[in-house]
Structures are given as C-alpha cells and as structure tokens.
C-alpha cells in the first residue's frame, strides 16, 4: 500500500519524540556526532505537519558516519546513502508505511545545514509565513494524498522563496554563518 500523506494539527509531543529518539541514537553515532537539531515542520510550534520527525545531524565526516550504518540499522533505521542529495547521508525509520523519523546528516560546512536551520528559524519567527506554509501543505495533502512526489513538488516554489527570505533575514540579524546557537532564536 502506498504511503498516505496526512497533515495533522500541531502536536506538542513532537519535540519530546525528537529528544527521546536522539537520546537513543546518539550512543550509536558517537564519537562522530557533533551536533543535532530538530528540523522540518514538526520543529515549528503550532504548525500542522506530517507527523514525521526530521532530524539534522552534523557529523565529523560522512565516512565516519558510514561506519555507523549497522548501529543505525540496529536502531530501526534504513540507511539510504545520499538519496539524491550529494554530501548528505539519509536514514529513515518506518513502521509499515508510516515514516516515524528521517535523519539528514552532513559534514561540517555543508550549505544544507544552514539552509535547513534558516528555514526552521525563519518560520518560527514569522507566524504569517508559517500559516501560509501550513495552508499550502494542507491543500496539497488533500489533492495528493497518495502521491508524495506531487505533494513535495507542490511545495518546492514556496520553500525556495522562504529559503531566500530566511537567508536575507539571517543576514539582517547579523547572525554568524554557523549552526551554533540557532536553536535558541
């Protein structure tokens, strides 16, 4: 059966699930794990989302992380390699057709680290933009309940525009071009 796309009301338990999962997974990723962040829609308070917890990990190196694949499998994850994004390692934890967790891992300095964190923090600080994103996702989920590619492509232009505004916003705030400290915005 194909995966059903569902956008659910915000659940305050999502950040708790992120913390609990990272408490388990961190042991399997040591010593290569440098930092981790809750990203994606479930990391934005009040935002409706697909109930999949997205996690960004910054690791010492992708080669070191590749050596942790068996540990990730033992934690219930499927290693997917780059999965279409050069410089990333991607892991999925799936139960039946339900995607529970996605881990996106990068070596320090990869531009997608800051792109993900900018997007999250910008939407946390701009509730009107977050609502517009929520409305778009809800509409797309209704139109493409069993078509994940169409759901994702329907969000692409909006996400790209927000990423551009988020980078400009970050520069206006004078924040450093590193991921350290971004969780506290």
Helix count?
6
What general outline do the C-alpha atoms trace? Answer: globular
Task: Write the CATH architecture name.
Answer: 2-Layer Sandwich
CATH overall fold name: Beta Polymerase, domain 2
Tell me roughly what share of residues is in helical segments.
40-55%
Strand content: 15-25%
Helix-strand topology string: HEEHHEEEHHH
CATH class: Alpha Beta
Largest beta-sheet details: 5 strands, mixed
Cα-to-Cα separation, first versus last residue: 40 Å
- Using only C-alpha atoms, the radius of gyration works out to 16 Å
Q: Can you list the strand order of the major beta sheet?
A: 1-2-5-4-3
| Count of the domains | 1
Secondary-structure-derived class: alpha+beta
- Report the uncertain regions: none
Whole-number mean pLDDT:
93
How many beta-strand segments?
Answer: 5
CATH superfamily: Beta Polymerase, domain 2
């Amino acid at each position: 059966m194909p995966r059903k796309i569902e956008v659910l009301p915000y659940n305050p338990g999502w950040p708790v699930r992120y913390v609990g999962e990272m408490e388990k997974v961190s042991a399997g990723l040591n010593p290569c794990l440098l930092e981790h962040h809750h990203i994606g829609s479930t990391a934005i308070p009040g935002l409706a989302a697909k109930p999949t917890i997205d996690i960004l990990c910054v690791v010492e190196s992708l080669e070191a992380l590749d050596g942790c694949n068996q540990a990730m499998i033992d934690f219930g994850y499927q290693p997917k390699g780059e999965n279409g994004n050069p410089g990333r390692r991607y892991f999925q934890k799936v139960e039946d057709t339900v995607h529970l967790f996605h881990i996106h891992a990068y070596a320090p300095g990869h531009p997608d680290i800051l792109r993900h964190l900018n997007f999250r923090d910008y939407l946390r600080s701009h509730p009107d933009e977050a609502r517009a994103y929520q409305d778009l996702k809800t509409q797309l989920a209704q139109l493409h309940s069993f078509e994940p590619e169409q759901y994702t492509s329907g969000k692409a232009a909006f996400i790209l525009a927000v990423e551009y505004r988020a980078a400009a916003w970050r520069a206006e705030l004078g924040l450093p071009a590193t991921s350290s400290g971004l969780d506290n915005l």
